[in-house]
TrEMBL record:
It is found in: Mitochondrion outer membrane. This is Metaxin. Residues 25-144 form the Mitochondrial outer membrane transport complex Sam37/metaxin N-terminal domain. Residues 172-235 form the Metaxin glutathione S-transferase domain.
Length: 332
């Protein structure tokens, strides 16, 4: 089929200004976007109904693809690969850096998302359980945890948790530093136009940069690589502007609501003070009115012989004429 007809890319939902939170989905979205060809995004919250019960799924006429390499090969056949125009050396560099990212950064990302207890309990599991419909929201998170364990075990084998973390974070930080050096001051990895390497880097870094992790160790290292931060923002704004703008608008509105809430809270002591003052004024007014109409009167003290001590000099006695209440027509 001609590429004049749009491709359909079925992906996990997005968040935090990204068209999808899943890195495999982001890789394909960025790759197809960089190719310049029209495509439509179809958001899927339950991959169970897809051909292989996985996401992403790319369809173009009778052609159906399930992973990045298949889509990349298809774009090459159609002569619309974003790597078109790279020299032989640049193509070799592109493959080498792509391999490095997959080998050194991907295991750390799997650990951060699915095996780190704080991140899994505080971010990953709640997010997927909210998005995926019941009862599949119990199955898929556990499946992804199992996949992550296999990935990490293949790299770290039988080390302790602390040794595993140290190795994963060390490899990932070195990878990020290498990518930062490669990018330098350029807009993209090989100059002014994005390539497949930029698609891979964006897919791996964007969720790491944007997601509100409870344990942000690797995220903090990424934030120290300012040019990589700018690369992610540049791709979001240029190629996925609707998601970026919608998130910024939402964040701005939430900031306004937060400020209004803070103003109300800051006025709380004054509201309490005013309530107390009003209550005291009302009490004095009611007491004065009671004296004035004779409901309450003062009377002199008398000795309290039994206790052997006088009562206070001023006493209030409630005058309640029960006889008048019982005989309202009786003349005095």
């Amino acid at each position: 089929m001609s590429l004049n007809h749009p491709m359909i890319v079925e992906v996990w939902p997005g968040d935090w200004g990204l068209p999808s939170v899943d890195l495999e989905c982001l890789k394909i979205l960025a790759l197809v976007k960089f190719s310049g060809k029209e495509f439509k995004i179809k958001v899927c919250k339950n991959p169970y109904w897809t051909p292989k019960s996985t996401l992403p799924v790319v369809s173009h006429g009778k052609h159906v693809f399930h992973d990045y390499d298949e889509v990349m090969s298809y774009l090459r056949i159609k002569n619309v690969s974003p790597d078109h125009g790279l020299s032989t050396v640049e193509e070799a560099d592109c493959l080498a850096y792509t391999y490095m990212v997959k080998e050194k950064l991907f295991p750390a990302l799997q650990y951060i998302w699915w095996l780190d207890e704080k991140n899994y309990a505080g971010l990953t599991r709640p997010w997927y359980c909210k998005v995926i419909p019941f009862p599949f929201n119990f199955y898929y998170p556990q499946r992804f945890v199992s996949d992550a364990k296999k990935t990490v075990e293949a790299v770290c084998e039988t080390e302790t948790i602390s040794e595993i973390e140290n190795k994963l974070y060390s490899d990932a930080e070195k990878c990020l530093t290498s990518l930062s050096v490669k990018l330098g001051e350029k807009d993209f990895m090989f100059g002014s136009h994005p390539t497949s390497l930029d698609a891979v880097v964006f897919a791996y870094l964007a969720p790491l940069l944007k997601a509100p992790f409870k344990n942000p160790i690797l995220q903090n290292h990424l934030k120290s690589c300012t040019n990589l931060q700018k690369l992610v923002s540049r791709i979001c704004q240029r190629y996925f502007p609707l998601d970026y703008q919608a998130f910024e608008h939402k964040r701005k509105n939430e900031g306004i609501k937060s400020n209004l809430s803070s103003d109300v809270d800051s006025d709380y002591p004054h509201k309490t003070r005013n309530t107390i003052v009003a209550a005291l004024i009302a009490t004095f007014a009611m007491t004065g009115y009671a004296f004035m109409v004779g409901l309450v009167q003062s009377f002199p003290p008398w000795p309290l012989a039994i206790l052997g001590e006088p009562i206070p000099t001023v006493h209030l006695k409630l005058l309640w004429d029960w006889s008048r209440m019982r005989n309202p027509h009786k003349r005095e």
